[in-house]
Amino acid sequence: MIKVHYGDKEKLKAEYISIFNLEDLKSKWDEIRKKFSKAYPKLSGCFPIQIRDLLIMDFESLVGVYEKYTQTISPECAKICGLHKDLESILSYDSYANKIAEFFINHANDMQIHTCHYCDMAYINVYYDGENGKEKRQFDIDHVLDKGRCPLVALSLFNFVFSCQVCNSRIKGQKQVTEVLRPIEKLSPTSEKYDFDNNVTICINPQESNCSTVGFENRMNDYMLNFDTHLDRDYDNVISFFKLKERYDFHKCEALRLLDLKERYTDTKIREMSRMIIGDNNSNVSSNCIGAFYRIKEDIFADDFMQKHHRALGKLHKDIMERN
After folding, report:
1. Where are the beta strands (DSSP E) in 117-266?
2. Which of 234, 226, 77, 67 is nearest to 152 (CA)?
3. Closest CA to 1 of 225, 255, 245
4. What is the pTM of this model?
5. First to last CA, the chain
6. What is the pLDDT of residues 21-79, one digit of tens each?
7. Is 247 exposed, middle or buried (0-12, 13-18, 19+ CB in 10 A)?
8. Strand 223-228 and strand 201-206: pairing?
């Protein structure tokens, strides 16, 4: 749901590469490339000359590597394949997990790691553990492309998504997302092509066309929360896979609360309130009146607060305020 923000991508890639001892990996990588490019000619394109290129390969190219590898090496073959084991020996995520986690903790602010990138419902912030004197993460580091099926992608920067445990462990688990989230090169939050925000709208649809939200607490079943994907139906796969519609239905009351506020506090009503506060009943254009108008509106709807402080359900809030 939330596209991963990389900030200064070139600087980030350089810092990420510094985690690894490339000189130590180079000789092992060269040996693997030489050995298996001959044994598996179809995989020759999967082995860049420099291992560093694999670590920072863009997601779309990474998908190409993953698909070629998994189409050539079956799961059965992977269990006994020397290539698979050799790759795991130098591209072991477990060997670098702590360093990778520390890297993302250090970059949590500039990468805007605040809420789950799959659902935007759970906070995944970094917190300070006073007992240990260290910052710790409240998020999972998920591999979009399965490292078990393709060890080549195990340490690739743009294969990592920051998520809550529900999305990563309970829903995604060991499922092969490439079989469900198609086209995966567009549907991963790490992809340049990912644009859930502009192609999907969270909306409330009343069962009756003229249904007012006044007193909605007693008429919750009169409304349906939907994800409008008419601009790009591919995002239906994301919504279905992560069960977003079912999970967001619990938060329908929040959407209805905002709609109720919008119905009761129209711009006209807020202008009247601003004129009363500044004691000018004849002006809508004075700087004082305009300032009061925006202060009152923010106090009621908290749009700026939600976005500035990266509150959960931020997209729901934004969509309801802008498009419903």
Report:
1. 126-129, 134-137, 140-143, 160-163, 201-206, 223-228
2. 67
3. 245
4. 0.92
5. 19
6. 999 899 999 998 888 888 888 888 888 999 999 999 999 999 999 999 999 988 888 87
7. middle
8. antiparallel
Phi and psi for 129 in degrees, rounded to 5? -95, 100
DSSP 231-290: T-TTHHHHHHHTTHHHHHGGGHHHHHHHHHHHHHS-HHHHHHHHHHHHT-TT-SSSHHHH
Q: Which amino acid is at 279?
A: G
* Orientation of helix 252-264 relative to helix 287-301, angle to 10°: 150
Q: Are 116 and 163 in contact (CB under 8 A)?
A: yes
Question: pLDDT by residue (tens digit) across 87-125?
Answer: 999 999 999 999 999 999 999 999 999 999 999 999 999
SS3 165: helix
pLDDT(289) > 70:
yes
Tell me the backbone φ, ψ of residue 132, rounded to 5 degrees: -100, -10
DSSP state of 5: P
